[in-house]
Structures are given as C-alpha cells and as structure tokens.
Amino acid sequence: MQKKRDALPDRGAVVASLAAFAILSGLGGVLNPYLISLLTIVFLFTFIGQSWSIMLGLGGQLSIGHALFVGIGAYSVAVLNIRYGLSPWFGLVVGMALAAIVGAALAWLSFRFEVRGIYFALLTIAAAEFARVVFSGWEFVGAMQGLFFPAQSGPNSLWMLRGDARFYYFVALAAVFLGVSVTALIRQSFLGYVWRAMRDDEEASRALGVRTFLHKIVIVSFSGAWAAVGGGLLALVQGSVFPDSIMGMGISVDILVGPVVGGLGTAFGPLVGTLITLPLDHLASAIGNKFGIPGLNNVAYGFALIAAVWLLPDGIWPAIVSSAKSVTRLSWFGYLQIEQVKK
Questions:
Q1: Angle at Cα 247 formed by Cα 163 and Cα 57, nearest 5°?
Q2: Is 240 helix (H, G, I), strand (E, B) or coil?
Q3: CA 177, CA 91: separation in Å to the nearest integer?
Q4: Model pTM?
Q5: How far is the C-alpha of 155 from the C-alpha of 174, rounded, in Å?
Q6: DSSP 8-state symbol, 79
Q7: Residues 6 or more apart from 167 whose CB is under 8 A from it?
Q8: Cβ neighbours for 316, distance < 8 A, ≥ 6 positions apart
Q9: What average pLDDT score do residues 154-161 get?
Q10: Do 117 and 59 touch, CB atoms closer than 8 A?
Q11: Is the separation of the CB atoms in 170 and 163 below 8 Å?
Q12: Which entry of 24, 129, 277, 283 is 20 to 30 Å from 37 by CA?
C-alpha cells in the first residue's frame, strides 16, 4: 500500500497543475490573436521538448537531431492528409510508428557498436541532416517546394484537426497537459526509477540486472514517437511543411533550449523554460528588426542559456519547487513553535 501511495504524484503538484491549466484554458477565450498564436507555438514546442527532456533528463541519452522525429511526424500527417485525404489522426499514428521504428533502429545501431555520449549526439545530427537532404530531393513529398494544407473552410473539425487559431490553442494546450501528466507518471513509476538509475550509473545498473541495452532502445524509440506527434501538430498549425523548416538544425536547437532552461526530466520544466525563452526570442527579433540589429534573438537565446547553466544548473522549475518547499517547512516550523508556546 505504501509503494502504491508513493507511486502517485504529489497532491499539491496535482492541484497546482490543474489550477495552472484551468487558468491557461480561461486565457484561451480572452487573449488577442497574436498572443493566442504565440502561446500555441509555445505549447507545441513544450510538448516536443518534453520528449527530448525525458530522453536526456531521465534516460541520459543526448540527442541534437530531434528534428528527425519531428519531421517524420510532420510529413506523415501532411502526406496522408494532402495526398490521400485521410484524417490527421491517422497521420499522427503512422508518424508515431515510423518515428519509433527509426528511433529503435538508430539506437540499436549506435549502442550495438558502443557509440554513446557525445558520439551518439553527433550520430543523431547526421541522421537528421541525412533525412533533410533526402526529403529535399523527394518529389512525392514536395521536395524543396514543400507541401501545403488546404485552406480552412467551414466550422472547426476535431476529426480533421482543422480550425482557427483558437482551436489550435486548445489542441496544443491539451497536448501539453497530456505531456505533463505522462512525464509525471513516468517519473513516479518503477520505469522512471530504473531510467534514472541507468542515467546516473549504467555499469552499476547493469550489475543489478537492468537490461540497459534494451532500456536505451526503448527510451529513444519512445521519445521519437512522442516528438513525431508534436511534429504532426506543428505542421497543421503552420499549414505547410518544408524540409529546412521542419528538419533543420534550428528546430533541434529550439527543442532543447526550453527544457535546459526550465529543468531537465521534470514535468513542468519544459513548459516554464519555453514560456520564457520563446517569447524572449520573439521580443528580441522584434527589437532587432526595429533597430536594424540582425541576430539579436540568437544573442538573447545565448544569454538565457548561459544564465540558466550558470545560476540555476538544474533549471528554473526545480529552483521554484525547492524554494516553495523551504517556505512550507518554515511555515510548519513556525506553527509548531506557536503550538509549543501555547502549551
């Protein structure tokens, strides 16, 4: 019974997360179109970032080519919808399956030949770049001209996942809620403890009987499938798919910044980090365009990363949680002191 109780998420965290998502849901009905579009992109990159955060933060496997999985999901949705008129839900399922297979194959080849650490990260970059070049010359998927979804006409449709900006806001928010819930459950589960133990000391985990080779393949495959769902949703929101914009290195970098700043392997870290960095990027771009300073957003990104690594190496969200616990402990200590004085 105690183990079952420990496996459940903290009650305070559940209440706080439900309150946060209730507020964000309420904001979806009152914000202006620009903020709706901006927050939709924030939510989608949070969702994709959570997949990357689990892979590194819990599994200890560094990927710098996560755009590969995002692209697979985006093209699966686009091709099946545009070429064959199928619902994007089919595309999301197909994209998940393809990305999981590609991730498992990439992980098997890498770990079978002891390619790990930074060399595995370089391999993911090479795989993403290889896929980008292939898709750039593949006429069936639009090559460099890309694919365009038909313009939205008629009412919002959940079955076809087509609608206005506010419709996608709630779809992306639901995706983030799902991502936070899954991350929290994995962290509290037996699998989460095994992955973290393997991340901290792979040799010791293997000595205790953990099948580390199999677990690493599962982690990469699972993370790839997750990112593919985010890629499919991102393609629908953008209304088009191009090899450079969906599989380029820029996407891979954008995915990792939020979790690094917010807190790797945590449920809320990617959301907090992306809520800070992506609007910062937009603001810096606007200022740079106004005053003729190209690349100002990249400088802002760099400062955000340096500040996070220097001041809060574990991320912003763990620091918030730690501060909240300290305040709670102090309050409880004060209450006990008062009770003792009364007695």
A1: 95
A2: strand
A3: 21
A4: 0.89
A5: 20
A6: I
A7: 156
A8: 261, 262, 263, 269, 272, 273, 276, 308
A9: 87
A10: no
A11: no
A12: 129
